[in-house]
Every structure is written in C-alpha cells, then in structure tokens.
Amino acid sequence: MAAGHSQLLLLLGGTETAAVPGISAAGATADSRRFTAAADAELLWLGPDQPLPHRLPPLPAGVTPALISWVVQQQLRLPLLIVDAGAALPPAVPHLQLGLPPSRCLSSAVAMEAQHLQRRLQRGRQLGAGFRRRHPSGLLVLAECVPGGTSTAEAVLTGLRLDVSGVVSGSLRQPPHRLRQGLVQQGLRGLAARHGSELEPLQVLAGLGDPFQAFALGVLQGALPPEGLDLAPGPQVLLAGGSQMLALQALHLALLAPRQRGAAVGRVVVATTGWLMGESGSNLAELVRRIAERWGATPQLAHAALDFAGCQQQALRDYEEGYVKEGVGAGAMAWLWELSGRSPLHLAAACDAACARLLAA
Questions:
Q1: Rama region for 163: left / alpha / beta (φ>0; ψ in -120 to 50; rest)
Q2: 99 CB contacts (<8 Å, ≥6 apart)?
Q3: What is the CATH number of the domain that holds 145?
Q4: Sheet containing strand 80-84, strands side by side
Q5: Range of the domain at 323
Q6: Closest C-alpha among 254, 1, 40, 44 to residue 149
Q7: Per residue in 55-113, pLDDT tens?
Q8: Residue 307: strand, helix, or coil
Q9: How many domains does one find in the chain?
Q10: In the Cβ-directed half-sphere of 131, how many Cα atoms lie within 13 Å?
Q11: Maximal C-alpha separation, the chain
C-alpha cells in the first residue's frame, strides 16, 4: 500500500431497507437501527471512555466493530474525517454534513432522487480530488456504516446484471438471502417499468442504492480519475469492508472504459475480516471472481488475521460465533495494523481492554 499520507474517511448513510423485519442485525430493532450510524461514528471519534451522545443500539450479541477501528486508529494515528451522506440521525461529533435524507427502501425502485444522487456524487468527487491533489502518493481508507447496506449492495450488483445469489454477506449470523432476493426483484421490476430492461449504472444506483454508495462512488472517481489511472505517483484507496465495498468497486468498474479497468483495480484493495471471509452463508472470493468475469478486471481482496477466541470479554468472543463480522472499517483497519508490523494477538488484547472499558462506561 501507499507509503505517503493516510486518511480514514468514515461515510454514514441510511436506507429504509433497514426497517424491513429480519433484514439486519445492526441493531436489535428497526427503531434502534436508526441510531447505529450516529452512535458508531461517535464511538470512533470519542472512544470507549467517553459518554456517547447517542446510545449504542442493542445487538443480538457482540459489540460494535467500531471498537476495533478505534483501537487501530488511535495506535496508527490516522486522521479521521466523518461524512454524513444521508444517515437517519447526524452524529454529535465533528463531521461534514450534506443535509440530505436517507434513501428509500430498495424495493421502491426510487431509492434516491436524481438531484440527491448528483449532489452526493459531486461532493464525493470534490473530496476525492482534493485528497489526490494534496497527497498524490497517499492512502485513503474508506469505511462505512449503513444499516441495511448489504441488501443495497446485492440490489446494485444484481441491477448491474451480475448473478450474486448466495454469495453476498450480511450482518445476521445467516444472511437473509430469500428475503433480500424478494426485495431486489421487486425493486428491479419497478426499475424496468420506468427505464426498460437495459439499465445504466447510475439508474441502478438511484433506484436501488444508498447514500454511502453514491458519495463513495464520487470519492473513487475524484481520487482515481480515468485520465490519471496510468500516471505515477497516484493515491491508493483501501475499501474497508466486504460485499458493500465490492459492490462499490463494481459500480466504479461499470462506469470506466474497458482499457481503464485494470489500472483501476491496481490502485484499490478491498480488505475485510477473517470472520467475513469464513462466513458459511456467503462467499466473497466467489463474488470477486464473478466481478472479474463480468468486467475483465480482478478486484484485490485481503483480510485480517485478527481473532477473538482468547479474549476475556464475551462480547468479543461472540465474533467467533458469527454474531458480528465486519463494519465501520474494522477488517481493513486490522489489516493495516498487521502491515505496520504489529501482532494480531496484541490487537485482540487491546480490543479486549477497550471493550471492558466500554461496557463499564
């Protein structure tokens, strides 16, 4: 990865898809999932020892992966920028506010108004281009918090004419494949009724996507402009997550000319956790293969070695049982920890201590 300046960018978004019963574990109830993005951003900014303005939503088990990202961010001293691209509630910590609403449910086929999509793309391009100008050899770490985001990821990938049945991950112990596929098919029927069967990538994004995807696509386009992909130096981007980040990369590839796609994937790494890579109900490696087959360029996929089997805190051992797998950039941040020469065992111990402080507070 790049040796220059590094920046952690956390993008917050919301989608009414998260209110569908049984669709997400990023909060035990639909109402609590409205607070997830704000609370995770506040934890990442304030840490486990400060009272959080928004209470962390109750989970079926485990603890938010924002805790992992906070531990790494503190040790590696990555500057943090939080952007509210359209969350249900804004975080009560310093952030960039777009003033745009969450997206509608993907089943509506009108998830985002055209002007809201364009506004997010524009602001994302400005941010990405600004990073490229200031840090031409830098590393931009792009993380997200979007309850319901794996469902919008599956919807966008399907709308781009990719068969992803059974391979997209989810926050639940077993991804709700049948429920998601029903929502996706409903959304696709609505899109086809409005635009016909040959959908453009931005029509798919507006109809089925979420605010994170729109803003993050702009960031990629600004940081990695087509005319600059073959030039050196140039920034690199670490997409911190799993299925959601692969869906984002698929969108980016779909909008590039075929000759530009190889250079684009050379500048981007998708990094996630071992828990997500080992999930029985999804297959990220197969998703990468299908993206490569569709667009002729293979995304780079990495994962961290972090595990919590020896932790004292049950909330962390719950990760080993599949209750929590990824989010808020945890996998990529743990991977950067390893690239810096630090031990995964030391990261697990640091997370164990931080979790004890969080639960005590």
A1: beta
A2: none
A3: 3.40.50.10210
A4: 96-97, 80-84, 6-12, 139-145, 236-240, 268-272, 300-303
A5: 6-360
A6: 40
A7: 898 888 899 999 999 999 999 999 999 999 999 999 999 999 999 999 999 999 999 99
A8: coil
A9: 1
A10: 31
A11: 55
